[in-house]
Specification:
67% helix; diacylglycerol O-acyltransferase activity; globular; mainly alpha; MBOAT_fam; two-stranded antiparallel ribbon; 18 helices; 2% strand
Length: 506
């Protein structure tokens, strides 16, 4: 065979091969005008080729860490919700069959006095914010007079002005300290001695703590704004956002009322704002709050309450295996109730409130469910509280030369005290479980912190996340719920009656 003939054969063969591949994807059809139109072959007449390359490239599994794109877990999320709903619904039906309908509004031991005192305190507690406004108003008027003595071109305060400002701030700080202390102490005393119902007491105490924190933030922030107004220092600039309402123009009753209702604990003269209110968005969020609140109420009395009551004799007899079994059974419903409460408060209620107030910054939480350590959880799950303590406690202490560990110790100590006040006072049992449950987070954070930096790919983070969930869902909330419920029953309920009967028999 000559070279020319071989070349011709190869060319015709190549042409035939290309035509065959082309014919597998395209089909020729004759148009109305006689022209040939090529279209993608979608008809069932397409000939299937068993030589198609199915495995044509290297690809990782979908759930592997080296997968180029993260898969969506919406299906698993839906499955988890279905499993939780079905599992807890079955247990609720079981409780109904055993004990009958447990929800009884008239059975709750709340009195008219509880409602009246709780309502009165709700309107009296914000008066401490008003007192803080009057204090800052007097300080602002004094600052306006002092500003006239500042020389043009001054880059910083004189030593005399610095001492005078410091002495004035000490006086104002004492007045603010007395004011915020009364806001918390007076409410705590009234709740502990005069409000019997735990829910009413908890709502009242929570309002007092929020106002206490906001009043302190109002005082600290205006102190620094007043210092910058009277003694401008080069390099210490007030944020540009505040130029829309500079000091002392921010000391108004309207500005204070907005801060009182704003979904934040940190005071700023100006916040990022949205342009309009989406009332449909507000209605959806409030609907979620209502539905989730009803679910929490139903689940608490139809599922959690029987489990807690059935645990009383086990705790009294120190039957540790049975106590552990009760903890494991309680962990599921406590987690469900807590997740529902988290969504109702941080996603639904705070977003609805922010929408009504046109409050723009709505980062109320981060993806805390992916926390690789307990420290990451406390930084992400409750952003308003975290930013408050970072701004007003942690960073000022670091700036004054405190070590990070000492500053963290103070932050968790204050937070532990507030947790005990919020739980122990309304239940009339200050037993320290909430305090130590919060305060002992420090060593747990130190233990799990290295997992964030482990050089095991994502293995360390995975182990840290598992430790977080186990400690949080099994040994955290269920144990605290058991202890406070038992303490309540020992003081007011069935356990106390059993103690009285035992004593009378002896």
């Amino acid at each position: 065979m000559s070279a020319a003939t071989a070349t011709s054969v190869e060319a015709s063969s190549g042409t035939a091969t290309r035509r065959q591949a082309r014919d597998e994807d395209l089909i020729e059809t004759e148009g109305r005008n006689g022209t040939t139109v090529e279209k993608t072959k979608t008809s069932p007449q397409k000939k299937y080729r068993h030589v198609a390359a199915v495995h044509s490239q290297s690809r990782p599994s979908c759930l592997s860490h080296d997968s180029p794109a993260a898969p969506s877990f919406i299906g698993f999320r839906n499955l988890m919700v279905i499993v939780l709903v079905v599992g807890n619904l079955r247990l609720m039906i079981e409780n109904i069959q055993k004990y009958g309908v447990l929800i009884c509004i008239r059975c709750h031991a709340y009195s008219r006095q509880d409602v009246l005192i709780g309502g009165l305190l709700y309107f009296l507690i914000p008066c401490h914010l008003l007192a803080a406004y009057l204090i800052e108003l007097a300080a602002a008027r004094q600052a306006l007079g002092s500003r006239k003595r500042i020389k043009d071109g001054a880059t910083g305060p004189s030593e005399e002005d610095r001492k005078k400002f410091h002495s004035t701030w000490i006086l104002i700080a004492w007045i603010h300290g007395i004011n915020i202390t009364l806001a918390l102490v007076a409410t705590t005393v009234v709740v502990y001695f005069h409000i019997h119902h735990p829910l009413i007491g908890t709502l009242t105490e929570m309002h007092a703590i929020v106002v206490w924190l906001k009043t302190a933030s109002y005082a600290f922030t205006n102190r620094d704004l007043r210092h910058a107004y009277l003694h401008p220092v080069k390099g210490e600039l007030v944020p540009e956002l505040y130029s829309k309402c500079p000091y002392p123009q921010n000391i108004t009753i309207g500005n204070l009322i907005y801060f009182w209702w704003a979904p934040t604990l940190v005071y700023q003269p100006v916040y990022p704002r949205t342009e309009k209110i989406r009332w449909l968005f507000v209605a959806k969020r409030l609907g979620e709050v209502f539905c989730l609140s009803a679910f929490i109420w139903f689940a608490s009395f139809q599922y959690a309450a029987p489990v807690l009551r059935n645990s009383l004799d086990k705790i009294a007899s120190l039957d540790f295996p049975s106590i552990l079994e009760r903890l494991l059974k309680l962990s599921t419903i406590s987690l469900v109730i807590w997740l529902a409460g988290f969504f109702a408060l941080f996603q639904s209620f705070l977003n609805a409130l922010a929408e009504v107030l046109k409050f723009g910054d709505r980062a109320f939480y981060d993806d805390w469910w992916n926390s690789e350590s307990l420290g990451a959880y406390w930084r992400t799950w409750n952003r308003p509280v975290y930013t408050y303590f970072k701004r007003h406690v942690y960073m000022p202490m670091i700036g004054r030369g405190w070590s990070p560990s000492a500053a963290s110790f103070v932050v968790f100590f204050v937070s532990a005290v507030l947790h005990e006040i919020l739980v122990g006072v309304p239940t009339h049992n200050i037993i320290g479980v909430a305090f130590f449950g919060m305060f002992l987070q420090l060593p747990l954070i130190a233990i799990t912190a290295p997992l964030e930096k482990m050089k095991l790919g994502d293995g360390g983070k995975l182990v840290g996340n598992i430790i977080f969930w186990v400690s949080f869902t099994i040994f955290g909330q269920p144990f605290a719920a058991l202890m406070y419920f038992y303490a309540w029953q020992a003081k007011y309920g069935s356990v106390s009656r059993q103690m009285v009967q035992t004593a009378s028999v002896k």
